[in-house]
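Same chain as my last thread, 377 residues:
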Amino acid sequence: MDKEQNKFSLLSKVLKLGIFEHIYAKSNPCSEANSPRKVSQSPPIDKCAGGDAPPQKKCTCSVSEDAKSTAGNRGKTGAGVTGSRTGHASEKDSDNLPSGAVSPGLLRHIHNAARYRLPQCFEGACVSVKQNSNTNWVLGHSLSFSSVSPGGYKVLLSYIDKSKPSALPYFVMEAAPGGQMSCEVRVGPTQGTRATVVAQIANAELYSFESILDGYFNNFTTSIIAVNRDFIALHYLQAVTEQISLGAEVVARGHSAELSSVSAAGRWFSESHSVSATLGNRGLDLCYARAIKPYLTVAAMLEVGFAIRRAVATLAYEWRAEEWTVRGSADTDGLVGATLQRALGGKKAQLACAISALLNHPNDKFRLGFGVTAAIV
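reply #2:
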């Protein structure tokens, strides 16, 4: 029994170091923002139903360590809030920030409690290997096959200081033989700030460049997000009480001024409930999450686009156990998706697998995905 406990304990630590986030999800082409609603899976890791806001008591729900995020953290139609392209670890776990600085969290994470329950559906097959070592550097390899998105081989190089709870500085680089490459660097210039730079290169040109500066204060947070020359976003989120947060977002676009937006946001959360909303001139987002049991969490999302006159509602759930996690969702567009992530154990290589299924009722199409990740320890 002790050997079994040690085995799963070791596997849990490997997963927390980013086995899914940095290799399987990040470097697998068929897993890019392919959730049934095509929303970006936001950012840093939620520990309770209140998004990234810290729990006042021990929370009865949790979020997987493999949650991801992508640029423009918006839903299909709603207002949303602009988010970062990638997310590694939540700063609320850091002991280097000022006292109370992690409350109320960042504005772009306000809907995390609900959106993290969405399955990250993908198509095809993927095999990923992570070569762990005693140093802070990790080398990864990924080989994917898909009839929908381009497959092939990718190599991943990442650096993370394992001795620091804040996981800073943080660096990850991904490259493919065709010349495509992406790189992310995150540092902490001061005690209460975090700076992130993300660059993508394709066809020998700088395809995308994103920079983010987050500021953490005792009862509010601010962010400045700039992507290429397309737009700049300003965020502000204030903790009114221990359970209520209010904020605003201003997005200014250089080439399309008519797409600029102003949004107001709010969130209320408790140990097992979270309600968040974003209302702006372009749309409305409503999210609700509830932890029914310690291992079961359900969520509901409504996105309304004023300009395009369209609304999408989604129901999702997450069922967690010690060795596996199941997520499922269904929306009013007729998309039904589910994923299963399972720890397999192993001796010299800790293994984990992921199975994905996505059914498109309107088009009568079905997609299946299978991935295996191994961490050589």
